[in-house]
């Protein structure tokens, strides 16, 4: 059975936020989203829009690829 590849986006939002000694609420306020959005993003359960990803990277003064990385699931073939 052939399954669809599972692609996902890894992020280091938690790492950057903690290094900056910020709460989830403080970061949320800075980038214009809810605390819940930051929470689910850090847990890996939410992929931000491109606009939000740029806001976060700009806030931390890093390249977007320093925080967000694309991971290809490849193809999983079961016979």
Short structural description:
The protein has 79 residues and is α+β, with helices and mostly antiparallel strands. The protein has helices at residues 13-19, 24-31, 35-42, 50-60, 64-67; strands at 2-3, 8-11, 68-71, 76-77.
Query: Gap between N and C termini, in Å?
Result: 6 Å
**Proportion in β-strands:** 15-25%
- Order of H and E elements: EEHHHHHEE
Shape: globular
Low-confidence stretches: none
CATH superfamily placement? lambda repressor-like DNA-binding domains
CATH class: Mainly Alpha
Mean pLDDT, rounded to whole units?
91
User: Based on DSSP secondary structure assignment, what is the total number of beta strands?
Assistant: 4
The helix tally amounts to: 5
CATH architecture: Orthogonal Bundle
Overall tally of domains: 1
Domain HTH cro/C1-type: 13-67
Pfam families: HTH_3
Protein name: Helix-turn-helix transcriptional regulator
Keywords: DNA-binding
Describe it.
This is Helix-turn-helix transcriptional regulator. It comes from Candidatus Vagococcus giribetii. InterPro entries: Cro/C1-type_HTH, Lambda_DNA-bd_dom_sf. Residues 13-67 form the HTH cro/C1-type domain. Pfam families: HTH_3. This protein has 79 residues and is an alpha+beta fold. It has one domain (14-71): 434 Repressor (Amino-terminal Domain) (Orthogonal Bundle). The protein is 48% helix and 15% strand. The protein contains five helices and four strands, in the order ββαααααββ. It has a two-stranded antiparallel sheet with strand order 1-4. α2 (24-31) packs across α3. It is globular, with a radius of gyration of 15 Å. The model has no long low-confidence stretch (mean pLDDT 91).
């Amino acid at each position: 059975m052939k399954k669809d590849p599972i692609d996902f986006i890894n992020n280091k939002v938690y790492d950057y936020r903690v290094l900056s000694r910020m709460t989830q609420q403080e970061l949320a306020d800075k980038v214009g989203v809810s605390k819940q959005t930051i929470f689910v993003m850090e847990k890996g359960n939410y992929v931000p829009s491109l606009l939000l990803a740029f806001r976060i990277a700009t806030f931390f003064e890093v390249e977007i690829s320093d925080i967000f990385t694309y991971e290809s699931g490849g193809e999983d073939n079961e016979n």
